Amino acid sequence: xxxxNNINKVYQTEMVxxxxxxxxxxxxxxxxxxxxxxxxxxxxxxFLNIAGMLEPFSSGTYExxxxxxxxxxxxxxxxxxxxxxxxxFQGFNLIPDLNLYENVxxxxxxxxxxxxxxxxxxxxxxxxxxxGARAKHLPQQLSGGQQQRVAIARAxxxxxxxxxxxxxxxxxxxxxARQVMEILEEINREGAxxxxxxxxxxxxxxxxxxxxxxxGQLADFSLYQGAPNxxxxxxxxxxxxxxx
Amino acid sequence: MLELKPMINALLRSKxxxxxxxxxxxxxxxxxxxxxFMISDRLTYLNQETGYDEEAIFSLSVSTFDPSIxxxxxxxxxxxxxxxxxxxxxxxxxxxxxxxGSGSSSSMHLVPNPEIGTGVRAAYxxxxxxxxxxxxxxxxxxxxxxxxxVVHADNYDKLPNTTIVxxxxxxxxxxxxxxxxxxxxxxxxxxxxxxxxxxxxxPWLNDSRPANVVIFPFNLSQPRAGFLVRTEPGKRAQVMAKxxxxxxxxxxxRVFYGxxxxxxxxxxxxxxxxxxxxxxxxxxxxxxxxxxxxxxxLTLFNISKRTKQIGTRRALGARKSAIVRxxxxxxxxxxxxxxxxxxxxxxxxxxxxxxxxxxxSLSFTFVLASAVFMLIMSLVAAWGPALRAAKVAPSIxxxxx
Amino acid sequence: MLWYYVDLSWRSxxxxxxxxxxxxxxxxxxxxxxxxxxxxxxxxxxxxxxSKSEQLFALQLQTMDEGEGWFTKDDIxxxxxxxxxxxxxxxxxxxxQAAMVRTGFAVHLGDExxxxxxMDARATxxxxxxxxxxxxxxGGPWSQSDEDNAVNKVVLERSLSEELFGExxxxxxxxxLDKFLFEVVGVIEPVTEHTKYYDLNNGxxxxxxxxxxxxxxxxxxxxGTWGNSNGWKREMVTTFKQRLDSxxxxxxxxxxxxxxxxxxxxxxxLKGYIQEQQKIGRFARxxxxxxxxxxxxxxxxxxxVSEDNKILVLLSFMFLAVCLANILGLLLAKFMxxAPEVGVRRALGASKTQVFxxxLVEVGLLGLFGGLLxxxxxxxxxxxxxxxxxxxxxxxxxDFLMLASAPIIAIVACILAGLLPAWQVxxxxxxxxxxxx
Lengths: 244, 401, 437
Prior knowledge:
The complex is a heterotrimer of chains A (244), B (401) and C (437).
Chain A: E1 2-12, E2 17-28, E3 33-37, H1 44-51, E4 59-64, E5 67-68, H2 74-84, E6 85-88, H3 100-111, H4 115-128, H5 144-157, E7 162-166, H6 174-189, E8 193-197, H7 201-206, E9 209-214, E10 217-219, H8 230-243
Parallel strand pairs in A: 3-8, 3-9, 6-7, 7-8
Antiparallel strand pairs in A: 1-2, 1-4, 4-5, 9-10
Chain B: H1 4-13, H2 15-46, E1 57-64, H3 71-84, E2 88-94, E3 105-109, E4 119-127, H4 131-135, E5 139-142, E6 151-153, E7 162-166, H5 167-173, E8 183-186, E9 189-197, E10 213-220, E11 224-231, H6 236-250, E12 254-261, H7 262-269, H8 271-305, H9 307-315, H10 320-356, H11 364-390
Parallel strand pairs in B: 4-10, 6-10, 7-9
Antiparallel strand pairs in B: 1-11, 1-12, 2-11, 3-4, 5-9, 7-10, 8-9
Helix pairs in contact in B: 2-8, 2-10, 2-11, 8-11, 10-11
Chain C: H1 2-15, H2 17-45, E1 56-61, E2 80-81, H3 82-91, E3 96-108, E4 117-124, H4 127-131, E5 136-139, H5 144-148, E6 153-157, H6 158-165, E7 174-177, E8 180-188, E9 211-214, H7 217-221, H8 240-245, E10 249-256, H9 260-279, E11 290-294, H10 295-301, H11 307-337, H12 339-347, H13 352-388, H14 400-427, H15 430-434
Parallel strand pairs in C: 4-9, 6-8
Antiparallel strand pairs in C: 1-10, 1-11, 2-10, 3-4, 3-7, 3-10, 5-8, 6-9, 7-8
Helix pairs in contact in C: 1-2, 1-13, 2-11, 2-13, 2-14, 11-14, 13-14
């Protein structure tokens, strides 16, 4: 699904060039749940932004579902993002003026989905994260964990094939963090591919596949204790899909 | 002491905000200084001295439609009736009213036609010996008309041979000596200057020589005529209210109209210029307010973009006063540059306006004064946002969005 | 999608009511001032008779001797001599023609019922009414034979007819103009609305006369002008007869020429007339000029729109520009503060184009509100204008075109001012605002 080949990302300022990503290679298969770890400034977020087409890359190729992202213009990228990708942020990034219903509605609006269909989906997604009764509330009336659940509902509303999560539990206490993680695992079981950037080794360990970014490059994951290897993960997913 | 260099760098980086402010200040200065200049030009014109006690004098006109009436006698009777009214100081018949915008003018020459000599144009009144007293005109040299000099007629068969002129006219005609006793020619007809009066304005204030006025002792009685009446202070309104009825009582086959105070005549003559001046004033006031608003908005914008930076500065030990000073000086730099460009623009605009329209050339004092004013205004407008910037908590620097 | 944008814009206004109100007020002030000066300008310069303005021509003849100049731009007097006007009327070579002069009378019924009232009256030809689209309520113009034989017939404007005779049809009744008894033959609506284009010598925006009578009566009754008389020649003029025969210009002349051929023919006729007059010593110059200006050219030539009005329009548009620069600054501030939200929307799949249009819609809406408020402000300003200068009372008004263009100008101006801020906000890197540390 995701195929990144020799991706480089260079930030150019007046004085210095910073290599955020260096010959970055990664393949992600349908249905995987990957945790991305790495020290601060290693390029995790840059990787996620490029994966979500929020930032252009300097060189290399990136294929998403067989589509060469480098050849798309901004509007095509926006459409692709809208249809295939859901974002979850550390800071939740809910729009403060919009109530929960309207926040979840945003991606559906941009997809041009009819009102009745929107309603069905939004209600289903809010139900899924356990906030169906609070659709009319504003984000500031919710706790952090609830806000993050709304953000997840919003990410799911467009029925994306990919969920990109940037420290989704970073601003939450451990109880709430666990709840959010459970929801993500549930979504993954239902077939969505998840890429999650995290600092938390405990959370990372719960993901079937771990990768580590160091100095803008993918470190050898096999060095990582307790990480399942790629083949096993794919096999697990296949087995689970068969069960379901 | 001042962090000018980093400030300029910061300005150069946040180009849009600064450039916008600059443009705005420049355009505003160009408009304000030109408009202020036009206003002052107009004010001089609107407030010019007329030489009359405008509140004490009023005019009325008559149109007589029955040809059987003996006009010479009737008008003499009317003058007597007017003077008999309680509160009236004097009254005189005249062909035209001062400050009204309607009148007659003619060229007066030093030699008779057809010889070609110096000619000076003047508005003229045909009236009688009561005119000077009615107008309140001050005799500087010579004398008033004798009653027997005044020609009372309803035609041009006999013309007067004396005249009283304003000192403005006398000086233009005889720059090097007294005009008293000199002879003037209107065509072939000669008149002697027997008196010179202090400045009074004729019918047209917008004339290039509004005070060129000559008075002839010629009580020309035609179907349409006018009277000027001077009243005691405070009694004009009551006199004006009853004058029409009174005169109609003596002869009803005529119509009185245009009964209005000299100040009213002047106001309606100047109404258009007054209007334009008012519009210019409104324009300037609102424009300055709007510009102040703009400076306010842009400073807010600049600050909101740099909230984090301000927090960092504060965290690093900058005092509130330093932050305020920083933004005020930054504003001063931008506004100052804008004003420099604006001054050039103002002069250019002034030149263009002068080319296209009949305006005098813009005096630079106005540009300077407007610029100083706008500089102060820009600092005042930036003051609020700068204070607000100083209130940014140092902790902002460490907080996420 | 448009409604979604409108909804978002409305929320945005509610979120920052102060800044939004400031912007709306800034636009409203700019539009208000601009529309005030523009409305006056528009009314002044508007074609007063669009259906016929290209067929009606003001005629001028250069009667002065060689070497004599005039104070007009092209050295041709505004008005004609009586003898030229009379001859042209007699020849009647145009499709319609009207010599005319502004005069005035004490108007009364000859009894005690009404006090005599002094008012303007126009002596003119019977074609005047058809030429200038005068609408008759009762009766019609006087007949050609009345005109030829100088019969005392008069056409009144409705308001005057009602003052004198009440609501009844006055045709056939009589009225005194000074001491002369006239028979009323028709009643009309006012000939012009605001610009008295057929007589620009005596105040371009005065109300039209309310009394009209045959031009031939000027000679018959020896009626003097209430307008301007100008002479260039030294000649003895003390009697009315001498005035009629003199070179003094005091008669206005309009001719209607329906087609280019008819205009060409008329010019041919004028040239012939001038040559004929040259034989008896008049038009004593090498190439005596004549001029036929249609209504709009005539207004232009007479500078109906004064310099002051043009300056004010110019200044007020510059003023609008300053208001827009302001709005631009405020919009930048407002939009940039929203960059994080835009980042989220972009991440959720909004394209740059969608973000750009969302903001343009918001700006357009601001313009709409500003424009509407601007109309109110302009009405207030125009009221001020009417109050301080009654001469403009018919002019300082907004017609439908101006009312409609105010919001359009406001919206277009705002969108122009909003392009840069909208562009700024849509091209910001969404990732920048989504970062969390």
